[in-house]
Specification:
81 residues; alpha+beta; three-stranded antiparallel beta sheet; 33% strand; globular
Length: 81
């Protein structure tokens, strides 16, 4: 999964994490606010600790992406969100 910031003023411009390092994924659908996916990413060899992440979903794609995650895990199909 790759995150790229659209705002050039953001401190974190980009971040990538392999799917095999992600765990504890949850899809949140608040009544007031955008849907989002949250979870943790394990540090790779030489890393220090797990990191939490949360993706905001202003385009309503979190549910579709969560379905793709489940299909990928169940069927070992290519993951394209």
């Amino acid at each position: 999964m790759i995150f790229n910031s659209k705002d050039v003023k953001d401190t974190l411009q980009s971040f990538s994490m392999p799917f095999f390092t992600m765990h504890g994924l949850e899809l949140e659908q608040p009544v007031f606010g955008a849907n989002y996916i949250k979870g943790k990413v394990r540090a790779e060899a030489g890393g220090e600790s797990d990191q939490h992440f949360r993706t905001s979903d202003v385009c309503n794609t979190a549910v579709k992406c969560q379905i793709k995650f489940v299909e990928h895990i169940d069927n070992k199909t290519p993951l394209i969100c």
